[in-house]
Amino acid sequence: ITFKELYENAEKACDVTLNKMEKTDEALPSVNEKHETDDSVPTGASPKICWNCSESEDMVSLYKCAGCRKARYCNDRCQEEDWMVHGEYCTRKMEKREKKRQI
Questions:
Q1: How far is it, in rounded angstroms, from Cα 34 to Cα 69?
Q2: Where are the beta strands (DSSP E) in the chain?
Q3: Tens digits of residue pLDDT in 51-91
Q4: Which of 24, 60, 73, 98 has the most CB atoms around it within 10 Å of its CB?
């Protein structure tokens, strides 16, 4: 593969990603669910941190993403900054949950 082909493939991938982001930007769920401590989490479980800035729940209040209900963020800014990374995962989780509801 030539450098030109590599560059063109990367450019196409970026265009696809941007198009997906534009379509899903309105679907960005807000960080509106306060993280509540789950006493059932086993000792030694990985610490809960902001998926964007990595602040721990010891330092800041963390909120669950209302879409996937897995990701945790300090605030809306951190969630928005992480959307390019988190968006596809979040969308898949929401679609999976919706399919389960329809069954």
A1: 11
A2: 33-34, 63-64, 72-73
A3: 999 999 999 999 999 999 999 999 999 999 999 999 999 99
A4: 73
93-101 contacts: CB < 8 A, separation 24 or more? 93/67, 93/68, 93/69, 94/27, 94/29, 94/67, 94/68
| Crossing angle between the packed helical segments 76-102 and 3-24, to the nearest 10 degrees | 80
Torsions phi, psi for 3 (to 5 deg): -60, -40
Instruction: Specify whether the CB–CB gap between 51 and 42 falls below 8 A.
Output: no
pTM of the model: 0.55
pLDDT tens readout for residues 30-58: 555 444 444 444 455 667 999 999 999 99
